[in-house]
Amino acid sequence: MNRIILHIDMNSYFASVEQQANPFLRGKAIGVTGKRKERSVVAAASREAKKLGVKTAMSTWEAKRILPSIILVAGDPEKYGDITRRFNAIFRDYTPLVEQFSVDESFLDVTDVAQDYLGATAIALAIRERLRTECGDFITASIGIAPNKLLAKLASETVKPSGLTVVRPHEAIALLDRCALQDLCGIGPRIADRLGDLGIRSFAQLRQFPLDTLAAEFKSYGLWLHNAAHGIGDDTVSPDAEDPKSVGHSYTLPADTSDPTVVQRHLLALCDKVAWRLRRDGFAARCVTAYVRFGDFSGAGKQHRFQEPTNNGLELFKIAWGLIRQNGSDVSLKQIRLVGISASGLITGSRPTSLFRKDRNVVSTLHALDKLQTRFGDRAWTRASLLSTNVLERTSGFHYDHEL
What we know:
This protein has 404 residues and is of the alpha+beta class. The chain has a domain at 246-386: DNA polymerase, Y-family, little finger domain (Dna Ligase, domain 1, 2-Layer Sandwich), CATH 3.30.1490. Strands 5-6-1-7-8 form a five-stranded mixed sheet. The protein has helices at 13-21, 47-51, 60-66, 77-92, 111-114, 117-134, 149-158, 172-178, 189-197, 203-208, 211-218, 220-229, 260-280, 313-325, 357-376, and strands spanning 5-10, 30-33, 42-45, 71-74, 98-102, 105-109, 141-146, 164-166, 246-257, 283-294, 299-310, 336-348. The relative contact order is 0.11. It is globular, with a radius of gyration of 24 Å. The model is unreliable at 395-404 (pLDDT under 50).
């Protein structure tokens, strides 16, 4: 039997939350930015700003050029995280099969509770009303209902804001043929360009294209493209989040700098944050990648694999700083705009007990500090060398604590 999947996508999410929280922002063109408005991007634009040409991911200076009257609001990630938890709790009142896809969108499998598409529509309308009463009038969503996640997400994108689009199995092809290739989640600009080189510019042409040729060009992704053009997609809603493949953090510095000390301090702060999240979630990393972006927006990165997995921030920092120095860049000569670190090759389980007392003392100290952070938050302690270094939370991503 075909599943019945809802995709619920919150409209202009961060901006809507800000307008709900602050009546003075309602009806005005606003853009939610990162920690520093002058060196950031628009993480979300209000409906009013979008109508006047401001787009998500646009730099703040460009948004100001297009719309000088735009009000830039520094994002509040914890506020958005709270609303996300609220609306997912509402969803779980209707079905236990809720999969959070990002901070502002989720999939729901309502097959058993709805029984048919009329029942699914009734659930969607009930959810919309509860969002209004429990989260606020400005917290609205576009909802797509379809037999799989791929089509449900496409359906939710077709009418915004506050749309409700139902796509029954026999209507899948008609929906696809009304859409451009890049409207489908999974077909980005590069894939679209490669398809264009093959003479494929629509889903109708993609359906007619030989599967063996697609497979030769795109390998296993060719089968996914073939199936997508026929409306075939994943219909499994997984309520349990998968383990992350990596844990990372990047940070745009307050100003471009060639001072190694400034770069080192921010890198150490990032390494401590990444290490805390590794320990909190029961992981250790076998690989670390460090990267920088320069003032001219060029960048460089390098990777190192550990002999023994680690979740110690200082160990991550020592390797990461060495990698940055090996990037072919003299930190004292180049202006650095952004620094970042990513820990990958994650494994679970406790690390073997060291034979050396110094190492055991470090583990014991970290364990005590972790208890402090668990109880009082991730700012419960800091290194003396980082007292003047403040890494602010960013307003983007899946969670506000930067999980990748």
